[in-house]
Design a protein that fits this description.
65% of the residues lie in helices and 0% in strands. By secondary structure, it is mainly α.
């Protein structure tokens, strides 16, 4: 299968759905099973579209949305692994690499701020 890059909002939606399918079968699913995914996934779409494409904006505070979660350091590693697997399974190219790099930065910053380590 020839992979294309992440080029459109539809590509982001496919990535987010693939990623959440993996999350819901993972050892960290307990952080996600209470979510109304019909409401949550469009917000995640908007976030990643704003991260990748200049035409989009995301108006919520990412840290604030996660402050209440009892996250553990190893869960960030699982989250990132599943996210990278999702990107790599679907896409290849500069935006795919940018997405993985930004996800690493986000995981690192969130871990530092939320776990205070």
């Amino acid at each position: 299968m020839i992979k294309t890059d992440i080029l459109t909002p539809a590509d982001v939606t496919k990535l987010v759905k693939t990623f959440y399918d993996k999350l819901m079968m993972s050892t960290i699913k307990h952080h996600f099973i209470h979510l109304n995914l019909e409401e949550h996934l469009p917000r995640v779409d908007r976030f990643w579209n704003a991260t990748l494409f200049v035409d989009f904006s995301y108006g919520q505070n990412l840290m604030e949305k996660h402050m209440h979660l009892p996250l553990k350091k190893e869960e960030f590693t699982i989250w990132l692994k599943l996210f990278w697997e999702s990107v790599d399974a679907l896409y290849s190219g500069p935006n795919a690499e940018t997405t993985k790099n930004r996800s690493s930065s986000i995981a690192y910053i969130m871990q530092k701020k939320l776990l205070k380590d």
